[in-house]
Amino acid sequence: MPAIGTKRRAAALVTAAGVLAFGTFVGSSAQATVPSATPTARSATSGIPALVDAAADLGRHAAGPQQTWFDSIYFTSSVKANGQEFGIQVHTRILPNRDEAAYRWTLSVINKTTGWYKDYAAMVEPKDYRWSEGKLDIKAPGLSWTGDSVRQSVQVQTPWGSLDVQLVPTGPAMNYASTGVFNLADGVPNYEFALPEMRTSGTLVVDGEKHTIRGTSWLDRQWGEMPTSLTRWTWMNLSMPNGDKVAIWDTIGAKSKDSWATVLHPDGSYDVVDVEPLAQGASRQWTSPATGQTYPTRWRIRIPALQSELDVRVTGNPDQEIETPDGSGYLEATAAFTGKYNGKQVRGENYVEMTGEWNS
User: Fold this and answer.
1) AttH domain spans which residues (predicted)?
2) Which helix (H) or strand (E) element contains residue 268?
3) Closest CA to 148 of 89, 190, 198, 88
C-alpha cells in the first residue's frame, strides 16, 4: 500500500498448517500475532480453511490501534483499444489513525504502444471520503467504486482524463499464502486476497481522446498493520497460459528477508513456494529524476519447486513512478515475462510494484 512513507506490501510467509497449529486466528478480521515460518513447497488441497472472504471482506474494516494500520484496495489492468495497448492502475487506501495523508486515491495510465504515461494522486479530507463497512461502496471526489465479488463498477475523474469500467471476476479468488493471512516483515500479520482474473470493459479518456477498452484486471484487497521496519519490497502478479495465477513477494525488513510466491490453480488449489531472492537476478537499474530513487527494470526469477525460470522486464517506459506525500515514491509499472514455468515455455504480461531503495 504505497504512500505509507515508502512502505506498503510485505510478507514473511506463514504456512496454513502453522497457523492452525498455533490457533491464533478467530476470524477473517482478527488482529493476531502470527509465528513466522519459512516458505516451503506444498499444495493446499487438504481443506484448510481460508481466513479471509472475498464476498465479505471487500468492505472497510474496523481499524486496529496502530498508527500505520491501513485499508487498501487496488487493481491493475491490461486492456486494448484501437490497436493500442494500455496499462491501468487504480488504488485507494486509508490510514484512519493518522492526521496527515490519511485518505488517498491514485490513477495511473500507460500507453504501452507509444510509451505515453501519466498518473494522478488525490488527497481527500476524511469528511469527503466514504468506504462502507461490510460492502464495497467507496465514494470520494473524483472516485466511485461500488459492487461486490460478482461485479464491480469503477469511475475515476482527473484533470487529464477519466476511466469508467466494469469488472467481472471469471475465476476463483486467491488467498495469499492459501489462507489470506501471513506475516508482514519482522513478524507483523497482514491480510490479503486477490480477484486475479476480472473481465474488464468500458471507456478510458486521456488528453481528450476516448478509447473503448477491453481486457483483464487483477484486484488486490489488503489490510492490517504496516511495520515501520520494512525497508523495501517487490510484488509481481503473473497469469500463466495454463490458468495458474502467481503472486510473488520479495521483502526486506530490519530482521527478515523473504522471497516467496502463492500459486492459485484453476481448480482452486494452491502451492506456496520459495522464490530465489529477486536481487540476485535484478539488473538494468533506472533512477527516478523526480525522487532520486533507483529501481531495477529487469529480473531473472527462479522458482526451484516449480521448475520455473522467468525473465521479467518493465514495458512502455521505466518512468512509471508514483510520488508519495513524503517526497519519495514507488514504481507501479507494466511488465512482460518469458521463460519456463513447470518446465514449459510461457509468456505473458504483468505488473511490478517496487518501493524502497535498490542501490544495494
Assistant:
1) 82-225
2) none
3) 198
**Rounded-to-integer distance, Cα 194 and Cα 192, Å:** 7
The separation between the first and the last C-alpha atoms of the chain, rounded to the nearest angstrom, is: 23
Helix (H, G, I), strand (E, B) or coil at 267: coil
Q: What DSSP string runs through 190-234?
A: EEEEEEEEEEEEEEEEETTEEEEEEEEEEEEEEEEEPPTT--EEE
Largest CA distance in the chain: 57
Q: How many angstroms separate the CA atoms of 236 and 234, rounded?
A: 7
Domain ranges of the chain: 16-355
Is the CB of residue 66 less than 8 Å from the CB of residue 225? yes
Alpha-carbon distance of 348 to 241, in angstroms, equals: 8
Cell of 343: 518446465
68, 226 Cβ separation under 8 angstroms: yes
Residues 244, 327: Cα–Cα separation, whole Å: 37
Task: List C-alpha distances in Å: 257 to 12, 28, 224, 278.
Answer: 8, 26, 20, 11
Region of residue 356 (phi > 0: left; psi between -120 and 50: alpha; otherwise: beta): left
Alpha-carbon distance 148 to 195, whole Å? 11
Q: How far apart are CA 197 and CA 216, in angstroms?
A: 6
Residue 329 buriedness (CB in 10 A; 0-12 / 13-18 / 19+):
buried
- Phi/psi of residue 322, nearest 5 degrees: -105, 120
* pLDDT, block means (10 residues), the chain with 360 residues: 36 30 25 34 54 95 95 98 96 95 97 96 97 96 98 98 98 96 88 98 96 98 93 96 97 93 95 96 95 96 97 96 92 98 97 84
Is 2.40.370.10 the CATH number for 16-355? yes
Provide the H-helix boundaries in the chain.
Answer: 16-22
Model confidence, pTM: 0.88
Q: For residue 21, count CB atoms less than 10 angstroms from its CB and return exposed for 0-12, middle for 13-18, buried for 19 or more.
A: exposed
pLDDT of 358 reads: 76
